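2024-03-11 09:14:02 DEBUG pipeline.ingest accepted 1 chain
2024-03-11 09:14:02 DEBUG pipeline.ingest length=195
2024-03-11 09:14:03 DEBUG pipeline.predict start
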Amino acid sequence: MTHNELWLTYHQVSRCNKPATAQLIELEFQNHRLLDLEDVLEHLFRQGFIEAKHRSVSFWENHEGHRVGGGHSVEELLKDGAGRCPQTALRLVIADSTPAVWFSYHYLHKPAALVVTQRVRLDVPETKFDIVAQLTNHVFNNGYLPSHLRSKVYWGAACGRRVEEHENLQTLLGAGEGVCETSCLHLNIGMLDVH
């Protein structure tokens, strides 16, 4: 039996706090049959359902969250029950933002103090931050640092550049700052830097 439709849902990391969008795709388009998931993905980009800039960060998962390669035959997936209805829709994951920010605590008044690194996941609604100040507030709201230190902290990049509270967090992450333990942001605690 040949199937003519495939259900999929879009899961955009930057929109993690919004419900996934479901779509029914016709597998025959302008006398061309979409044979594998790579064909489907190319079709979605050509039709403008997804911006081209997201191509390098898009991948497939089945409805249970297991990765599925782009070379998988659509017909075989449908035979196995994947993508036949909204409940078994294939997931197109668009990792358009970094799912976590890494930072370390640096106590300036105690140079010998142990430097501790922390990760904050950004792919959950309660930690959806736009600017660095929201990350700072998260640190204090959760009691990771006592509130009396709020006026005595400032951020720095791994390269030593001062990071301002109003800076866009995704821009920093896009530049490679705070994306991993070895390139984490620095939360400097102690005397304010007067440079």
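2024-03-11 09:14:41 DEBUG pipeline.report The first helix runs from residue 37 to 46.
2024-03-11 09:14:41 DEBUG pipeline.predict end
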